[in-house]
Specification:
This protein has about 550 residues and is of the alpha/beta class. Helices cover about 30% and strands about 20% of the residues. It has 12 helices and 21 strands. Strands 2, 3, 4, 5, 6, 7, 8, 9, 10, 11 and 12 form an 11-stranded mixed sheet that branches. α6 crosses α7 and α11 runs parallel beside α12. The longest helix is centred in the N-terminal third of the chain and has 36 residues.
Length: about 550
Amino acid sequence: MTDKTIKRCCQLLALLMTVSAATLSAQNKGKRWQRKADTFAPKTFQIVTTQEQQTIEHFGASDAWSMLFLGLWPEDQQRQIADWLFSCENDVTGKPKGIGLSLWRMNLGAGSWEQGDSAQINPGTRTECLLQPDGTWDWTKQQGQRRFLKLAKERGVPYLLLFCNSAPVQFTKNGLATNTGRDGTINLKDNCFDDFASFLAKATKGIEEHDGVRIDYVSPVNEPDGHWNWLGPKQEGSPATNREISRLAKETSKAFKKDKLQTEIVLNESSDIRCLLGTYMAGWERGNTISTLFTKDSAKISVNGLPNIPNIVLGHSYWTNTPVDTMRSIRLRLRDTLAKHNLKYWQSEICIMGNDEEIGGGGNFDFSMKTALYVARVMHYDLVYGNACSWSWWRACGGNYKDGLIRIYSDDGMKTGHAVDSKLMWAMGNYSRFVRPGAVRLSVKAYDKDGNEVSEGDTRPYGAMLSAYRNKDGKLAVVAINYSESLLPISIKVDGNGRNWKLYRTSDISAESLAPVGTAGTEITLTPRSITTLVEETD
């Protein structure tokens, strides 16, 4: 054997040892987490029906930006996508046809589509505008998106929302739907606040009349405190100060009252929960949303008590989901602040971002349980610790990124294509399909094998996480997440008594995508890496 060959063999051996060490390290880390999950692991979960928490209003997703195209695809493809997203029916085997979203968010466009490449907006995210620069209305615009409003209504979706990323381009300071060097101020001409408000009122009224739907909410600003670079070319969007948001909200309230609209105006879709609570990565002009917009202390800026503006604050869960201890503490701060100001909270948008390193960040669509479980855990934390009354995913349909519930494929610029469902979509369905509008979340207590109460045992971020709800019909629904790779036998009692449950599960097994998997009484075994919803059976 030559010296060169010996050297090469040594290099290969060293490489193998490095790979083996890395693999062993990853395995040991997983085992450590598993041991952590098993240590003092709860064995019995007690649902306390007398301890009521928040009322759940809806679960939702948005049409951005895919429905502009998908709403023009062949009818059978549209209906399949709509069934997956909106249906509350079961097929002949008893399996849910869809995840039963109860809120559908339509992106009210600003006109970047008509501008073409001069819009400085990525082609796939440009939007049409119903209002033309000459002041006329073109009701042939946004046909694909408005088609899905109708499909949602046909399938019984009870709530519809219009949201804006930008004012129509004819009202903006730079003539664009994206910010270009404006720092943190709104991209809206000073003399056009009332024009934008009138547009929102007329668009709402027109869509209702032309499409036979009822618009329940309008969200006029989106991520005004966004802490990323607002320079294009990117997406439609505009920053705004609290004072500017207040001014726009007051003008919109006035316009809706004038047009006798019952539609509620919801604010302000903060880009990060921490922006609701302080000045996280934004100046004072765009931070402290809750204490600025929703308290009597800031009388000139406060929107409290204005017509059509409810006591609700909207925020996004981006960037706050890891590590799990931080995720929890942020939401507890939010919960305490909401209670102090008597506010409801809607988590109105989230997808996977670059800092979600546990599942490899946002790149590349994931059909598996890896992303599904991660998002289910976020839902649990938002609902249990953040007291969210509403929870929405970002895009219903997307491409090769972890921002869609459904993966869309197209080789011709979205003129044609096909759609594929995902475990993520069905995982969300464990909540949205069975926890219906008006359901009340109930406290859950946990006990170990010796009957000792386990403090906050309803949440083991790498083990079992349980939340319980009582629907308006009186039936209970329990969502049980098993994040671990082990079987978890548990007992579930209601006020000390057993109940009979029908089980629906989403897991790594290909056939188990919100699939009915039988019935159970008090004793239940959670399969590895699964989300199981238990629906109370009554005589």
